Amino acid sequence: MAGYDLKLGIAKGFHEEARAFFDFLRQAARRHPVGFSVRKVKDGEYLATIDGMPDAKIDAFLQELMIGRALYYYACGVKNRRRVAAKVIAPIFQQILESRFAIHP
Fold first, then answer.
1. Which residues are CB-neighbours of 104 under 8 A, at least 6 positions away?
2. Cα gap 92→75, rounded to integer Å
């Protein structure tokens, strides 16, 4: 499968929230089919592997999360949603997007 590895950093102390968000991403990835696996390297740092053949499946997975508002609905269902969105959801998803797509200022 085509794909890539990515180091993800989040604020320390949000391990449980990050783990729950990774579970959500894993479940969402299965619909495309895209492999999404994560392991903890140390507190606040994770190594994610995203696999999908062809690469268009990975792009479709990410587009569904944004355009289909899956991230919004996920955030609405967690406790302390503003804090979790700012410290977990936004940083993780931003790092995934920046690694996948060229971002030009």
1. none
2. 13
Looking at residue 4, its pLDDT comes to 85
> Which residues are paired to 8 by β-bridges?
46
* Residue 69, SS3 per DSSP: coil
Whole-number percent of the chain with pLDDT over 70: 96
Asked whether 8 and 45 are in contact (CB, 8 A), the reply is yes
72-95 burial, b if ≥16 CB within 10 A, otherwise e? Answer: eebbeebeeeeebbebbbebbbeb
The letter for the amino acid at 38 is V
The torsion of the CA quartet 100, 93, 105, 83, rounded to 10 degrees, works out to: -170
Distance CA 21, CA 75 (A): 9
pTM: 0.89
> Two tokens at 6?
């990515």
